[in-house]
TrEMBL record:
Pfam families, A to Z: DUF362
Record-given protein name: DUF362 domain-containing protein
Organism per entry: uncultured Desulfobacteraceae bacterium
Domain DUF362: 39-238
Superkingdom of the source species: Bacteria
Length: 480
């Protein structure tokens, strides 16, 4: 049995940093793992806030324990650091602060890398199955010797699960991260694994997340999952919550490229938490893999049309793009405005190529979402033609700056405020943009400007811009 094909499932019922440290240290020892050189720990901090998004990220206690275990096992250490790129346009500084990471990182004398603030390094992709021949990674990722992956065990509305493989989406800055974040999302996840793989994985499954990625419903699983191969770890993770590993498309792709196993009989599963016992505990674990045209009921304020999508491999639906952005956006709105859908004006959300009449009501606004949206017909007696602006192969974003992006989207909403329809660009649209459009045309409070978010977000944004400018200057002057 290949040592890389061993996975440990350990019991851990509470977020006790010392207990977590001991479990991870013992796991490293059993798997023969000894960190060295430049050691980088990558948690999942897609979005963090103790009140608004308390279950979306790798907990600080878990990071605390992992840092302690890594330091205890390490040899010939040059640096121990923690790095991440949070959700699109959201300053990682904001999420780290809300997750409680800075105090933990300081406690262990580690270094912090906010990936969007660091120089970006081109890396050749040698896998012939990859979408692109080159990817761009933050310098701390490209230059680390020992990458430790610390995902949060969560369901995901676009990829079914986010475990070790999916967590690597957070190693790219916005301009490159949105590239292929559409029907090619599963391919992109596999491609990232072709570029760089972790040498150790420890998944925070003490409290797992159900349904969504940003506002997940907590599920007490009481486990820590460890291994040295992402495919093996994710295969076991699938079985832990009754998912066929072949239904995790990015896992299937990565395994077919020879990056690891996808069959349980090729993996040695051990630890003090037997897989059968875990499966009994997770019988009620919930997912949210529903098409938007089936998710929203017929009597609600939002109705959807999902037409035909441009890429041959996924004509019927774009799981990684604008449809999923709507689901995440509405869950955020529901979290902050529980009765929002009762207050909203009617909205028709249209994605892909839509043929035939839309049968729009007079008080209903149509949002044609995403670059690939197209339609020719009438809306309230007015002839309308929406042409697809989708570009095959994708392209790097020129800018995805939080401030300029918000201003541009809000100006577009204001300009079209009296129109029965609006064309919303993006491939894909970001969740924040969808919130803007739903708020503007649904005539409800814009939760992007919640006081718990707007002030600390903008403070973090200003600090990020200043640090990014200094980083560029230092890189230009050869400071490293």
């Amino acid at each position: 049995m290949d040592a890389g094909h061993r996975v440990l499932i350990m019991k851990c019922d509470r977020y006790d940093p010392e207990r977590i440290k001991e479990i991870i240290r013992e796991g490293m020892e059993e798997l023969g793992v000894r960190p060295w050189g430049k050691i980088l720990l990558k948690p999942n901090a897609v979005l963090a806030h103790p009140d608004l998004f308390p279950h979306a990220f790798t907990r600080k206690e878990f990071l605390d324990g992992a840092l302690g275990a890594a330091a205890a096992r390490a040899k010939n250490v040059r640096e121990i650091s923690v790095g991440e790129r949070s959700a699109i346009t959201i300053p990682t500084r904001f999420c780290f602060k809300n997750a409680g990471y800075p105090k933990v990182i300081k406690k262990h004398g580690a270094r912090t890398y906010y990936f969007e603030e660091r120089p970006q390094v081109p890396v050749e992709v040698k896998d012939p199955n990859a979408l692109r021949r080159r990817m761009v990674l933050p310098k701390p990722v490209a230059e680390c010797d020992f990458l430790i992956n610390l995902p949060k065990f969560k369901a995901h509305p676009w990829t079914r699960l986010t475990l070790s493989l999916k967590n690597f989406i957070g190693i790219q800055d916005d301009a490159w991260r949105l590239m292929d974040h559409n029907t090619f999302l599963e391919h992109k996840i596999a491609d990232l694994q072709s570029v760089i793989q972790p040498k150790f994985i420890a998944i925070d499954a003490i409290s797992a997340g159900q349904k969504t990625m940003i506002t997940p419903v907590p599920f007490h699983m009481g486990a820590i999952v460890m291994g040295t191969n992402s495919c093996a770890v994710d295969t076991v993770g699938c079985h832990m919550v009754h998912v066929d590993p072949s239904d995790l498309i990015h896992l299937k792709m990565a395994s077919e490229r020879g990056l690891g196993p996808m069959r349980l009989d090729e993996i040695e599963v051990s630890g003090d938490f037997p897989l059968d016992e875990v499966r009994r505990r997770t019988e009620g674990f919930e997912f949210l893999m529903e098409r938007i045209d089936e998710y929203f009921g017929p009597d609600g304020a939002i109705s959807c049309e999902a037409g035909e999508f441009p890429e041959k491999h996924s004509r019927d639906y774009c799981w990684g793009g604008c449809p999923g952005a709507l689901q995440e956006a509405i869950h955020i709105i529901r979290e902050l405005i529980p009765d929002a859908e009762k207050k909203m004006k009617k909205i028709r959300y249209v994605t892909g190529k839509t043929q035939g009449p839309l049968n729009i009501e007079k008080d209903e606004t149509v949002i044609f979402a995403g670059d690939c949206a197209s339609f020719k017909g009438e809306i309230n007696g007015r002839k309308v033609e929406i042409k697809s602006r989708y570009e095959p192969g994708g392209k790097k974003m020129k800018s995805n700056d939080m401030l300029s992006k918000n201003i541009k989207t809000l100006a577009h909403c204001f300009k079209n405020r009296k129109s029965p329809y609006v064309r919303a660009r993006g491939c894909p649209m970001s969740v924040a943009d969808v919130v803007h459009y739903l708020s503007a045309f649904g005539k409800i409070r814009n939760v992007n400007f919640d006081l718990k978010l707007i002030i600390p977000l903008n403070i973090a944004y200003m600090k990020m811009r200043a640090a990014k400018a200094l980083s560029r200057l230092g890189h230009w002057l050869g400071w490293g």
